[in-house]
Amino acid sequence: MTRLSLASPAALCTLCAFLTLLTACGAGNSPWPATAPPQPAAQTAEITTTAITETAPAASGQLHLTVRGAECEARLGPERAPVQLGLTGPCAIMRDHKGSAQTYRYDDAGGVQVYVIVGEMKGECGTSAQALLVRGTEMKASTLIQRGSHKCPKVGLDEKDYWMFAHK
Is the pLDDT at 37 greater than 60, yes or no? Predict the structure, then answer.
C-alpha cells in the first residue's frame, strides 16, 4: 500500500481541489452542467383492448373469457354479446384437478350451469370470484361476487360455493 504524505505539493493540491468540490456541491452549486429535471410523461388516452385470456367448452358453445381495459367479460361464442363481470382483470376460469373448466348444473335452480371466474389475479391465485350462469344459450353474471378470499383456479372450488352462486 502506498502512503500519501500531505507534505507533498501534489497531495496538498489534490486535497484542496477535493474539498473545494465538496463545498461547492454541498451548497447546491455543482461544477458539472445541470441536467434538466425529469418531465412528467405526456398524458395519453386510455387504450381499450380486448384479448381472449381463456376458453372452455360449454354446453351451448365455447366460453370465451376476455379482459377489456381492466374489466373482465365473458361470451358464449364470438357472435354473442359479451357479459360484463364485476371483476378486475386478469381473470381465469376455475378448473378441476384435470385442468378442465369446473362446472356444476343445478336442476332445482332452473337447470343452470355454473362456471366460476376468478378475478384480480396475482400469480396463480386471485382475490375475487363471480359466477357465469348459463341456461341453454343464455348467459348472465351472478349478482353475488365473493371478495377478499384467496381462490386459485388450478386448485378448484368446493361445490357448496357453486350451489351458493346458483341459488343466490
Answer: no
Please indicate, yes or no, if residue 78 is contained in any of the structural domains.
Answer: yes
Residue 3 lies in a domain: no
CB atoms inside a 10 Å sphere around CB 132 = 26
% of the chain exceeding 70 in pLDDT: 69
Q: pTM here?
A: 0.68
Smallest Cα–Cα separation from 72: which of 138, 141, 131, 119?
119
Number of domains observed in the structure of the chain: 1
CA–CA separation, 12 and 30 (whole Å): 22
Give tens-digit pLDDT for 139-155: 999 999 999 989 999 99
117 has pLDDT over 90: yes
CA dihedral sign of residues 27, 30, 36, 39: negative
| 95 domain-assigned | yes
> Minimal CA–CA distance to 73: which of 100, 48, 106, 98?
48
Q: Domain of 84?
A: 50-167
The set of cell numbers assigned to 165 is 352462486
